[in-house]
Amino acid sequence: MKNIDLIIFDLDGTLIDSLDDLTNATNHMLLLLGRAAATREQVRGYVGQGARRLVERAMPDATPDEIEQGLSHFLVYNEEHIVDRTRLYPGAMATLTALHDAGKTLAVVSNKNVALCTKVLQTLGADGFFAAVIGADSLAERKPSPEPLLKVLHDLNIAPRRAAMVGDSINDIAAGKAAGMVTIGCTFGYGDRQEIVDADYLINSVPGLLELPLFRAPED
């Protein structure tokens, strides 16, 4: 595990499966506004660029006032039910433990608001692994901008070539590449596989991270 010192993870669709809770929050909003419910697969396509973008995608014909109402309904419900059905992906806890025990520095950069990121990680018992957590509202720009990744690199004094970005969407891969980092795409997440085809590596599960040559201990 000598090549990479820092691993930055996306959250939804990478470390946690939150799609059921996001679907419930979306449908709560839609029903309050007199609209038809969305399917789980439809909501999968709405995720990736924060709550406002999700609301806009769910109601493409909405007025600005309806978007604001919808966003308020979504955020209130989502915070109250943030971990009703959300879980870490299989093997995620063991993988984080292995990386942490190997001396790797871990961080989260998400397009979910930082307070919600922290709440999810705390509730799932995974908050202690991360040296930094950055959300959509932490900085002026969010992924696919490299700004939040560069902020983590700067604060932790780690060179981009010694860091990897792990995520399931084009936002994660684009941000990682723009920051000069190794990129690792998660095929099991919410993004379409074509979104992550340009990643340096692909993994089919969180534990698959440990099998990459970047992290695998050299043979004697």
Give a concise summary.
This protein is α/β, with parallel strands linked by helices and 220 residues long.
Shape: globular
Q: Name the helicity range.
A: 25-40%
SSE succession: EEHHHHEHEHEHEHEE
Number of helices: 8
Terminal CA distance reads 14 Å
Assigned CATH superfamily of the largest domain: HAD superfamily/HAD-like
Just name the CATH architecture of the largest domain. 3-Layer(aba) Sandwich
What's the count of strands? 8
**Major sheet: order of its strands?**
5-4-1-6-7-8
Q: Report the β-strand fraction as a percent range.
A: 5-15%
Largest sheet: 6 strands, parallel
What is the gyration radius calculated from CA atoms? 17 Å
CATH top level assignment of the largest domain: Alpha Beta
Number of domains: 2
Uncertain residue ranges: none
Helix-strand makeup class? alpha/beta
Please describe what this structure looks like.
- This protein is α/β, with parallel strands linked by helices and 220 residues long.
- It is 39% helix and 14% strand.
- The chain folds into two domains: 6-17 and 86-211, Rossmann fold, CATH 3.40.50.1000; 19-80, DNA polymerase, domain 1 (Orthogonal Bundle).
- It contains eight helices and eight strands; from the N terminus they run ββααααβαβαβαβαββ.
- The strands form two sheets. It has a six-stranded parallel β-sheet with strand order 5-4-1-6-7-8, with helices on both faces. The chain has a two-stranded antiparallel ribbon with strand order 2-3.
- Helix 1 crosses helix 4 (64-80), helix 2 (40-46) crosses helix 3 and helix 3 crosses helix 4 (64-80).
- The radius of gyration is 17 Å and the shape is globular.
